[in-house]
Give the backbone structure.
Amino acid sequence: MSLFHFQLISAALFSLGLYGVLARRNAVLVLLAIELMLNAVSINFVATAAFLDPQEFMGQVAALFVIALAAAEIGLALAIILRLHRYRSSVNVEEIDILKG
């Protein structure tokens, strides 16, 4: 497989994630779509680094940082969503206006 194939897969996953963020109303599904977008970025980092300079591991290191960021993001976001569900009995994104000052 060439670099183009990996970038095509990454672009398709990113597009699916972007569609999920824009089209969904459920906050949990929006989080899953964001995770899909972050995984697409990780695939692109690793594939580009492997094809451009196989001796360096900068793409893998960047992908590990993206995975760590995604884990922290999902933990914090799920805590916020659980709190909103307790307060509102809904996780609909359009009903989240209680965070306004």
Notes: The radius of gyration is 17 Å. The chain has a mean pLDDT of 88.
